[in-house]
User: Fold this.
Amino acid sequence: LASPDLVIERSEIIADLHRRAVSAGAEIKFNSRFLGLDKRGVRIDLEGSERVVSCRALIGADGVNSRVRAQLSTDRIPVVPLLQAETDLPPDWDSGITAVWFDPSRTSYFYWSIPDQDGKGVLGLIADPGMDVRRALDDFAREQGFSLENYQKGSAALHQRALVNEYRVGELRVLFAGDSAGQVKVTTVGGT
Assistant:
């Protein structure tokens, strides 16, 4: 890259989006879970009890394994596996630097190291489907001098230009955003 990518702390983006949504008139409900859609409206579990709410629009921004998308039986988002693990960073590691390694002979994607605090961080990998992700990360860690513990796995959405992200269920408008819409940077498989 000719210059570093801009990286913004996710919690700051979430707080800013929350402020903007509330100031625009949105009502934000925490501790809730989408249960489904039916003729009565959107069914949610809100703080332990099922409720039916009516709304003009439902935004499915519920991740790569979107329950909203599954409810509508729409196309699933294509994904690739990712794995990361906690590690002690080398003593000379700059805690303000996130490192990314591109090695096309190992993966079409990349490895990363993100510092946390007190000399700790995470080392991770986005892998090609079918790849032995654990072995690939362990081999890379050993070569780079990292010792790994507390592994965390997941899936990263892949960008899909032709994916339909707006539906109608009666009068309800259903839109998808973020990972549930395949809205990711093609270059880094990172969220928008």
Q: What stands out?
A: The helical segments are 10-23, 67-71, 133-144. The chain has a mean pLDDT of 85. DSSP finds three helices and eleven strands in the chain.
